[in-house]
Amino acid sequence: MDSHIYGVSKKTLFFFTLLCLSVYSISALPHQNKTGNSTGTGQMINSNSVLVALLDSHYTELAELVEKALLLQTLEEAVGKHNVTIFAPRNEALERQLDPEFKRFLLEPGNLKSLQTLLLFHIIPLRVGSNDWPGRKSNPTRHTTLCNDHLHLITKNSGEKLVGSAELTRPDDVTRPDGVIHGIERLLIPQSVQEDFNRRRNLRSISAVLPQGAPEFDPRTHRLKKPEPPARAGLVSEGYVLTVLAPNDEAMAKLTTDQLSEPGAPEQIIYYHIIPEYQTEESMYNAVRRFGKIGYDTLRLPHKVVAQEADGSVKFGSGDGSAYLFDPDIYTDGRISVQGIDGVLFPEVEKESTSVKKSVSPVKVATTKPRRGKLMEVACRMLGTFGQDSHFTTCQ
Q1: Torsion region of 387: left, alpha or beta (phi above 0 gives left; psi -120 to 50 gives alpha)
Q2: pTM check: above 0.85
Q3: For position 315, what pLDDT does the model report?
Q4: Which of 27, 196, 310, 386 is the most buried (most CB within 10 A)?
Q5: What are the residue boundaries of the FAS1 domain, all occurrences included (predicted)?
Q6: At residue 39, does pLDDT exceed 50?
Q7: Taking a C-beta distance cutoff of 8 angstroms, is the pair 259, 247 a contact?
Q8: Which domains are delineated in the chain?
Q9: ω before 302 within 30° of 0 (cis)?
């Protein structure tokens, strides 16, 4: 029997003590707020935030640049402190109308600071709706951006509203409790980024001049030899970034002679598997998860490689000519990335032409007489010397 202390058993007293200790330990844990975060951590971005709306909006080119510039944490902190106004250029302004050399300059790993400054130049830490624009007869209003530069809001006599030199094409396109997104016609470039680009371009033009010898004379034609065109393999040595989609050996072994017989076909296949930007498994998977389908430029202009999410991985192409990312990050050094895929990719135009060829080829095979193998011909010839070839229908 259990001993008692003032009418209470020792076992009951022991369990009561354990219960008190557990309640005290739970109360000592950090309290959580309504959003599920502890008070010691930063605020969680609401799903109704203007930042989430930007990443899921039709401004896909701007959202992709924000992720490449590693600005998500900076923008989360800005949205958590105050309302923001985002001036979002339309996709055509970033994809087609932007100078290719300037875009390449922004995407180089060494120019990350310039890319961040450019994007922060489009964000004001203040909510400015379309109704807050100055009137036609009012002076332009000046606002400080997140990169500590200034933007001027102007209204012309014709009623057009401007942000710097860009026209406001879609006012109040996306509105959220913590901010607003206005669509503009073009990209806003701060003076500091423009000067940095001009400085790099001038230095590159000076350093890119290679010493050349005297022109060579061809004694057969009595003319000067034409210089060879620059090889695309020199892209790596000139500081470009590349992502190579490398098919495995099984996929390369399935290539037919028809696909390789045309002049320049092997080179065109290789160019279609090279993306002139630096991508990793993580960056490509995050992009296809967020945007569904992504079109990557290749060295085989103007064809693009389309990537999408499938079975928890990245799928390139479509239909029977698709390939999956099965051996990721074979080699990555910040400039060159090699990603293993399980198939050889071809542009959509070539897929249609090859399908037409395949549909016609069975008719040709049906009209031709099947050719006997060399081993069978030698065997029939040996049997003919002994007069036994007539016993085999194959030799007749």
Answers
A1: left
A2: no
A3: 93
A4: 196
A5: 46-188, 190-330
A6: no
A7: no
A8: 50-198 (2.30.180.10), 232-346 (2.30.180.10)
A9: yes
